[in-house]
Amino acid sequence: MRFRPLGESGTAVSAITLTLDASVAATGASNIRELVYGALEEGVNSFHIDSLDPTLIRTAGQALAEVDRDLLQISLIIGPLPNGRRDFSVEGVNAVLGAVLNASGLRYMDAVIMDDPAENELPAQTLKMLREDERILRLGIRGTSDVMDIYINSGRFDMLFTPCHIQLDARQRGWMRSAREQQLVILGTEYYPEALLNPAKPAPPPEPAKGIFGLPKKKVFIEEPLNPFAFLHTTPGWEAEDLCLAHALLDPSLTSVIVRATNVPHIRRLAMACERDMPVSMPAQLEMARVAASRAA
């Protein structure tokens, strides 16, 4: 596993960060434990808790407890509650943080990430409390709305979670540029947007029209639009997802890329992709595909 510096802290973190979310929680305690152990064996030391499922938090905490806490980077998302509500008040955030620390057995969080708060949804009192809380080392932000520009440049955050795939729009690229200028630690998300990069399923051909005497008319050839990223799925020796991950890791401003895996073989494959060099022509092919896709949009 390759490691990268975590800002100017002197700490190094794995090139990939494993997400522990609802999809992992659904696999059950035994699989959660095996997944965390499997990630640790591959050299992953960065984990992101993206679910408040009690079994997930308790089981992951027990597995991570077998490693020196100072060698791990663990972040927690705070956003929608299990009941679907959102509560960024001091009391609400404190309740979530306390519950996760108690259930996991962890003494502190390396980072707490605010999930997509609206412009007036994140009280100044909450930010002040989080800044002063000794159970939190860094404060981060994740979001998709235009208010992200304000949050990134506010000087209140240390970390940014942001998409890092090949088809970033100008707004998202601007967020990364601003984060670099503010010296925020940047973690990449959505490196493999399947909806954008997977070949679209062709629509079923229309029923042939009937001509004179009920005979079908001559078949009309309909050319299907080409997927400019189709080569990702036909590159020998590579999975499309692995190529996208390797491409994201070419960006030196990313501290780590957040990956999703629900089983040990998957996390092992992604860990291996971090060690591989992309085919020499691949970055140029991806850039040409990006330009072609943007022109077709």
Description:
- The structure is a single chain.
- With 297 residues, the chain is of the alpha/beta class.
- 37% of the residues lie in helices and 17% in strands.
- The chain contains eleven helices and ten strands.
- The chain has an eight-stranded parallel beta barrel, surrounded by five helices. A two-stranded antiparallel sheet has the order 1-2.
- Helix 2 runs parallel beside helix 3 (54-64), helix 2 (29-41) packs parallel to helix 10 and helix 9 crosses helix 10 (264-275).
- The longest helix has 15 residues, at 90-104.
- The radius of gyration is 22 Å and the shape is globular.
- The relative contact order is 0.14.
- The mean pLDDT is 87.
Summarize the structure.
The protein is built from eleven helices and ten strands. With 297 residues, the chain is α/β, with parallel strands linked by helices.
